[in-house]
Amino acid sequence: MPEVSRTDLHRLQSRLAALATIGASEGGGITRLALGDADREARQLVLGLMRELELEIRVDRVGNVFGIRPGIEEGPVVMMGSHLDTVRDGGPLDGSYGVLAGLEVLRTLDDAGIRTRRPLAVAVFTNEEGLRYAPDMMGSLVFAGGLDLDQALATVGEDGSVFGRELERIGFAGPHAPGSIPVHRYLELHVEQGPVLDDEHAVIGIVEGVQGISWTEILIEGEANHAGTTPLRRRRDAGYAAACVARYVRDLAQLEIGGDQLATCGVLELEPGAVNVVPARARLTVDLRNSRDDELKLAERFLDDFLSTLEYDEQVRTSTRRLARTEPVAFDADLVGLVEEVVTELDYPCRRMISGAGHDAQWMARVCPSAMIFVPSLGGVSHSPREATNPEHLEAGANVLLEAVLRAAD
Ligand code: HGY
Ligand code: MN
Ligand code: MN
């Protein structure tokens, strides 16, 4: 088989730059919420690249897009991929890098005249971020059988839109049943989105698993009142109660659970939102993460207990809705070992690690042996316009993906 070990960094960078213009805002961030117009445009750009590669294109009923490259033999594919949707004001690499590097790998194989024994595929999973429609990682979740298709299609977004209708509107309500593509191995290349590799000057993260995720929406019902006349003891202040929750979850993570427990209040909305009105209502979200499911469950329970106490202390009513819940997952040890073998041979400084961020690989691991490859995020920054990675690290990640896929496919 002809030797090939290098992808074309400039070609990859030019495609990343083109994709980054879709959903770009003045502040430099990128916003491509799932099933919005920018998501459609990004999907169409990738479809164009898939057609250039003469891939067999399949779109499934939850909008996942697959480009399939035939192998010498038929059968389960070796799949790469990630997502194209972003958070609000996100960066140019989260998700995009894994999709475009996967296509770069296929282009490199074409240029080298290489045909692998197994078919190869690049996947674009729908709604990985979960901002507009919860839960996150919805496309891979349905693909893996973790969420009923009709339930996904009926999901109402935070903007009141209906998932299935939006999927039709953007033209990506495909005919194929989710999960109908047999997968031999799944390999996802992604930026780390955290500081570990950058701090240690490592180039490649050999990802052994992903921590668990729990998202809860909390509604707090108090009573609007006059800020100047209502004594503190007579208030039912939803704003103060919400602030108590935000403060509590930090203590919950740092003091009560400890270890690698994390807690974030990413959304906090008050109504009526007037300077001289005691807030009547609050809507907030709590994102809890832990690599141990027993501790994550404890954190969830402690939060519920805190809300019960808060109701009594502040005379408010609270209600909760679980937006997402993904257990910690360990990737396939042999596939992780294959990635480590490749990285060692290519002589990149590396380390094994757990992913702090959730990824589609977390659900693909329930379908087939899966693993991930990380490259450093400069300053550990992601989900931000400042998200960036050194070009030579982008190239290193793509080369490791290329070599790992060649081995998994043959
Ligand atoms: O939330 C996450 O960890 C991922 O970026 N969806
Ligand atoms: Mn991502
Ligand atoms: Mn993300």
Write the layout of secondary structure elements.
Blueprint: H1 9-20, H2 37-52, E1 56-59, E2 65-69, E3 77-83, H3 96-111, E4 120-125, H4 138-143, H5 149-153, H6 163-169, E5 183-191, H7 196-200, E6 204-210, E7 212-221, E8 225-226, H8 238-257, E9 262-264, E10 268-271, E11 277-278, E12 281-290, H9 293-314, E13 317-326, E14 329-330, H10 333-345, E15 350-355, H11 361-364, E16 370-375, H12 391-409
Parallel strand pairs: 3-4, 3-5, 5-16, 6-15
Antiparallel strand pairs: 1-2, 2-4, 6-14, 6-16, 7-12, 7-13, 8-11, 9-12, 10-12
Helix pairs in contact: 1-3, 3-12, 8-9, 10-12
One manganese (II) ion (MN) is lined by residues 83, 94-95, 128, 190, 359.
Explain what you see.
The chain has helices at residues 9-20, 37-52, 96-111, 138-143, 149-153, 163-169, 196-200, 238-257, 293-314, 333-345, 361-364, 391-409, and strands at residues 56-59, 65-69, 77-83, 120-125, 183-191, 204-210, 212-221, 225-226, 262-264, 268-271, 277-278, 281-290, 317-326, 329-330, 350-355, 370-375. It is α+β, with helices and mostly antiparallel strands. The strands form three sheets. Strands 1, 2, 3, 4, 5, 6, 14, 15 and 16 form a nine-stranded mixed β-sheet that branches. Strands 7, 9, 10, 12 and 13 form a five-stranded antiparallel β-sheet that branches. It has a two-stranded antiparallel sheet with strand order 8-11. Strand 3 (77-83), helix 3 (96-111) and strand 4 form a beta-alpha-beta unit. The N and C termini lie close together (11 Å). The model has no long low-confidence stretch (mean pLDDT 97). Residues 83, 94-95, 128, 190, 359 line the site of one manganese (II) ion. The site of one manganese (II) ion has 4 residues, from loops.
